[in-house]
Amino acid sequence: MENTFIPMGFQYYRAPTPAPTEWEKDLAKLAADGYNTVKLWLQWRWNEPEEDVYDFSDIDELMRLCEKYGLKAVLNLILDVTPVRLIKKYPDSAMITASGQRLEGYTTSYRQIGGVPGPCFHHPEARKHKIDFIHACAKHYADHPALLMWDVWNEPELTVGVFREPITENLVCYCDHSIAAFRLWLSERYGTIAQLNACWGRNYRSFDDAEAPRHQGTTADMIDWREFFCDTVTADYILRVDTIKSCDHIHPVMCHTVPMPIFNSITCCSDDFAIGAYGDMIGNSIGSDPMAADLLKSAARGKTMINSEIHAAFGSALNGFHYPDENDLIRHIFLPLAHGSRGFLFWQYRPELLGNEAPAWGHAAFDGGDTEWNRITRDMFAKLKKHERAVANSIPARREVAVYVDRANEIYAWDATNSTELTAKSMAGAYQMLYRNNYAVDFLCASDLDSGIPSEYRAVYFPAVFLFDQSKKDRVMEYVKNGGTVIIEALFGAVDKITGRHCMNLPGCGMAEILGKHIDRMYSTTGISNGYDGKVSNDGRWFEAVTENGEQLLGGRYFTTYTGNEGEILARTDIGRPVVSVYHIGKGRIIDIATLLSYGFIHTGVLGNLTFLRRLIGDPERFADMPIGVRVDRVGDHDEGFLVIDNTTGAPQTFTLPKEYCIDSILGEITADGLVLTISAGRTAVIEYSAAQ
After folding, report:
1. Does residue 87 contact residue 80 with C-beta atoms inside 8 Å?
2. Model pLDDT, residue 647
3. How many whole angstroms separate alpha carbon 159 and alpha carbon 398?
4. DSSP conformational letter for 40
């Protein structure tokens, strides 16, 4: 792919729609409108109607039309639609849930041809047939002039939405093939059965005795069980990439994910960071949100990323659907552009006609004609194409702060609370506090920490991190001693992943001993009201504090008190208990927050949390003079490009651009008086700029 080429277009074909009678008219119009890319589905069940008999006639014709009209094609492999014959031939290839249900051959609104969720990932014969289909696709299209890239997995997950809700009954897979593969995985992770027994608290005689957990509550085994499937999904992605590359050494290979926490580590088991390490590029669905874009950017580690499946005109049968306006489309295109995306494909071009996704999702009208949102999109893409070189060569903002994420921590918190809400909202809260303060935000995953925290980060935030381990604590301390700032919250490292046990002191994993303190009490807004029925009550309280500068802080869910070294206290409750304490260690510091400040912010949006964090970390390196809550990102070079401005507050905001910018045009609800700009409440705007003369 050319260095300056930015894919701009649509998902177009998911057999059997749109109808062949519409293809040439649609693709001709797409090209005339200035779009350059379409995505086409190659579906296992559809394109291999008989064993080893491949029918690519529909895709062949679409690829011919793409070449005719100068469009590039992304070929998306859909392997979660099992051929009927495979289910009949290998009945034991079906996935089995924790409750014993066999999953085979479902039709869904998003896989109308059936076969969902596909065969068990560990069934050897099914895997071979899957590889054969991938190989046939790659061999057939590797040299096609219209091919842009391969997208080998549409939203990686285990059951393709059949059982996405994270409850134990929905867990897969408990078939003999998966259990055998799990035991092998355990032997490679632990080395000896004694090590496994020590962590799980068992007395197994061999790894053949190890049982897959079917209930929550014992923690260590459940974390291993779900991490095993995270590794399973990653391994299947690698298999797809390698199979394509065995036939095609030219075209990029990628997949597009759904970012956490929308896809969780319990039932979905898709790990963007593990997946991002393989392939040439990476994409995502629902990538228009800045947090999703920054998650993908962090997982991509410098690889090209695209917003692969933009859900603009969403809806469902008899429930209405959304008509995107200008502000929606700015957010779908320019917000992810500002956070690293270099390609934009909407789902989808024509309105859906089959199933409960009909009659929504269309960018075009039913007759293929224009919609208002298509005209707006076309004009926005024309602006983007005008600055394609500057955008493609834009230098990203220097890494400034990071938010820590860990799939094992998410699994632990779910196992303990029966919900992913606690970790998901805390992660989002930490991100939002940093984003709204104009910091350039990365995400740092657990495996990244094994090689140390990059010194260029001014601060790393650990939101609601209840599971940790001693080795990662050592990497944290190296970073702190060398001048870094670490922010931890209540119950940090409460459980040691290596030992599988709750720590006897908090913050855990040896951190309390370093800080010279000891846990006294833990208070919670939730509680078991009756020890026999296990019902949990929630009184809805927030934990309030005031800083020495008078900022009102709100934390959530937990509050901890300590004895021993209180550190330098920056905030207290109304009765004087420390809430935020600073511990200076070496050249750096640890900020210990006695509640979940991140969780409190995502629920309340209290301004004090923002201003306090800004004062704690210092002004951002770019656009530091913006009002708190107004985000500005530049995409382009010194001479030309875009400023993307996101007003996250509930009021209009006025600010002044630096003198080096000259405003060429404006998109969105924003007015300019020279370089003095006013943006409407809660809106996003785009400034097309050139260098001031």
Report:
1. no
2. 98
3. 38
4. E
What is the C-alpha to C-alpha distance for residues 510 and 520, in angstroms, rounded to an integer? 16
Structure tokens at 129: 């047939």
Give yes or no for a contact between 340 and 293, defined as CB atoms under 8 angstroms apart.
Answer: yes
Residue-wise DSSP of 167-198: -GGG-B--SHHHHHHHHHHHHHHHSSHHHHHH
Q: Where would I find the beta strands (DSSP E) of 327-436?
A: 341-347, 401-405
- Using CA atoms, how far apart are residues 371 and 332, in angstroms rounded to an integer? 17
Per-residue pLDDT reduced to its tens digit, 499-530:
999 999 999 999 999 999 999 999 999 887 77
Closest CA to 348 of 357, 356, 340: 357
Distance, in Å, from the CA atom of 396 to the CA atom of 456, rounded to the nearest integer, reads: 14
Helix (H) or strand (E) holding 468, with range, is strand 467-468
Cβ pair 309, 341 in contact under 8 A: no
Query: Contact at 8 Å (CB) between 613 and 434?
Result: yes
Q: Measuring CA to CA, which residue among 518, 480, 512, 515 is closest to residue 496?
A: 512
The string of pLDDT tens digits covering residues 12-62 is: 999 999 999 999 999 999 999 999 999 999 999 999 999 999 999 999 999
Place of tokens 């870094």: 484
Task: Give per-residue pLDDT as tens, 164-175.
Answer: 999 999 999 999
Query: What sign results for the dihedral spanned by CA atoms 25, 27, 31, 34?
Result: positive
Tokens representing 135 are 């190989």
pLDDT digits (tens, 9 = 90+) for 615-669: 999 999 999 999 999 999 999 998 999 999 999 999 999 999 999 999 999 999 9
pTM score of the predicted model: 0.97
Radius of gyration of the chain (CA): 26
